[in-house]
C-alpha cells in the first residue's frame, strides 16, 4: 500500500513498522466505536468523551515512554496507540455493561439476526460507500503529494491536522444528528 502511494524510501522504513503494528490494533478501535455508539444512542455522549480524553492522555504518556525513554521510534508510537485504543475499548465496553440489564453483554446470546442485519446493511452500505469514496480520493491525493518528496508530505500533514480540527466540528453535528434520527426511527416517530 505504501508503494502504491509513492512513499519515499526514507519515509518507508519508518512507516512500514508503524502501519503493521497499528493495523494489528484496529479491532480495539472497532469495539470502542461500537460501544461509544451504543452509549450515545441511549443519550450518554459524555462517557465516551471522558474515555477518549483519558486514553488520549495515556497515548501521549506511552508515546513519551516508548519513543523518548525506550527509543522504539515509530514502532513505539504505534504500540502506544494500539495500547491506548485497547484501553478505550475496554473502558467503553465496561460502561456499556454497567448501563443496565438491557445493555449487558452476554457472549452466549450474541448471534446474527438476518432481518436486522439486512436493515443495517440498507442503511450502512450507502454511508460506508460514501466514506470509502472520500478515503479513496484522499489516498489518490496523498499519492500525488508523496511523489514530490518528504518536504511536501510534511506540509500536507500539517494542513491535514488543521483540516482535522474542522472535521471534528462537523463530526460532532453529524454524530448528534445520527443519534437523534436513530432514536426517532427506533421509536417509529
Brief summary:
By secondary structure, the chain is an all-alpha fold.
3D architecture notes:
This protein has 189 residues and is mainly α. It is 80% helix and 0% strand. It is built from 6 helices and no strands.
Secondary structure layout:
Blueprint: H1 9-24, H2 26-41, H3 46-69, H4 73-98, H5 114-146, H6 150-186
Strand content: under 5%
H and E string = HHHHHH
Measured as a percent range, the helix fraction is: over 70%
Straight-line distance between termini: 45 Å
CA-atom Rg in angstroms: 19 Å
Describe the biggest sheet?
none
Shape, principal axes of CA atoms = globular
- Report the strand count: 0
Key terms:
189 residues, 80% helix, 6 helices, single chain, mainly alpha
Amino acid at each position: 500500500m505504501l508503494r502504491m502511494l509513492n512513499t519515499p524510501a526514507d519515509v518507508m522504513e519508518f512507516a512500514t513498522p508503524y502501519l503493521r503494528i497499528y493495523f494489528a490494533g484496529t479491532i480495539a478501535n472497532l469495539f470502542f466505536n461500537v460501544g461509544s455508539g451504543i452509549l450515545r444512542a441511549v443519550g450518554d455522549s459524555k462517557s465516551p468523551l471522558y474515555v477518549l480524553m483519558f486514553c488520549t492522555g495515556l497515548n501521549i504518556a506511552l508515546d513519551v515512554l516508548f519513543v523518548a525513554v525506550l527509543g522504539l521510534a515509530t514502532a513505539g508510537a504505534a504500540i502506544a496507540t494500539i495500547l491506548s485504543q485497547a484501553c478505550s475499548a475496554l473502558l467503553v465496553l465496561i460502561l456499556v455493561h454497567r448501563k443496565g440489564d438491557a445493555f449487558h453483554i452476554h457472549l452466549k446470546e450474541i448471534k446474527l439476526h438476518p432481518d436486522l442485519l439486512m436493515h443495517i446493511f440498507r442503511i450502512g452500505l450507502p454511508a460506508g460507500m460514501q466514506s470509502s469514496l472520500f478515503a479513496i480520493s484522499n489516498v489518490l491525493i496523498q499519492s500525488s503529494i508523496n511523489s514530490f518528496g518528504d518536504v511536501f508530505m510534511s506540509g500536507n500533514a500539517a494542513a491535514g491536522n488543521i483540516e482535522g480540527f474542522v472535521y471534528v466540528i462537523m463530526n460532532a453535528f453529524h454524530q448528534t444528528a445520527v443519534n437523534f434520527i436513530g432514536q426517532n426511527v427506533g421509536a417509529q416517530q
